[in-house]
Amino acid sequence: MRGRAGFTLIEIMIVAGLAGVIASAELAPLVFTVGSLDEAQSRWGVRRSPAAAVERIYSDARRVVANPSFPSFKVIHKSGLSRENDDRLVIWSGAPKFEGKGTGVVVYKIAGGGPFESEKRGLYRWTIVGEASHGAASGDSSSGGAKSPMDVDTDALDAKDAKLTLAGAEGVRFQIYGGEKWEDDYAGALPTALRTKIFTSRGTYSHTGRFPNAAKK
């Protein structure tokens, strides 16, 4: 008796149809899950983003590295008619080491969104490593008038050289507490506390973080 040479067209169509039904049944939960994640991201992402941005700032601040030759923590207060809440935070931090770099300067400020800029408006983070003189970076004060790595021209920083920390941020304020009062401008060691306010179209997010080991840094 001769064996069958192959499947008939009807048998092939039946098998293909069954495979399609099985694939659809298995794919449906996956599509639903992805849709649910997108919905959750849309619903909760913006609300949580300021908190995540602030946590990143305080993580960099907690890794401040004391230096006898220059202040390791600076708040530059800027606010005017053309732009309000335009403060800058400058930290000599060990945080870049966790990014495969060395100890360096971390800067936070609002940038982007200009008429000739492709970067979005928001709060940005710069890491500047290896651009200071060896004497200043190593803490050797014998290098004369060597420029401190903390003497960053924050106005000249370009958003394309930074990482976007919080899209949509329209302004930021930093204040430090040195033990007696809150200050808008500061240059010195790690302060007792840092207050951060982030301004967005949805409102203002404010957080105060304290540094228990400030006296040691």
Overall description:
The chain crosses the membrane at residues 12-32. It is found in: Cell outer membrane. Pfam families: N_methyl. InterPro entries: N_methyl_site. One of its GO terms (cellular component) is cell outer membrane. With 217 residues, the protein is of the alpha+beta class. It has one domain (48-216). 27% of the residues lie in helices and 27% in strands. The chain contains two helices and ten strands. The chain has helices at 9-62, 134-138; strands at residues 73-76, 88-93, 104-111, 122-128, 163-167, 171-177, 182-183, 186-188, 193-200, 203-210. A six-stranded antiparallel beta sheet has the order 5-4-3-2-1-8, with helices on one face. A hairpin with a 2-residue loop joins strand 9 (193-200) and strand 10. The radius of gyration is 27 Å and the shape is globular. The protein starts with 8 loop residues before the first helix and ends in a 7-residue tail after the last strand.
Largest sheet: 6 strands, antiparallel
What is the first-to-last residue Cα distance?
A: 92 Å
Proportion of residues in extended strands = 25-35%
Q: In one word, what is the shape?
A: globular
Q: What is the tally of helical segments?
A: 2
Which strand order do you get reading across the main beta sheet? 5-4-3-2-1-8
Protein name: Prepilin-type N-terminal cleavage/methylation domain-containing protein
Keywords: Cell outer membrane, Membrane, Transmembrane, Transmembrane helix
Main location: membrane
InterPro entries: N_methyl_site (IPR012902)
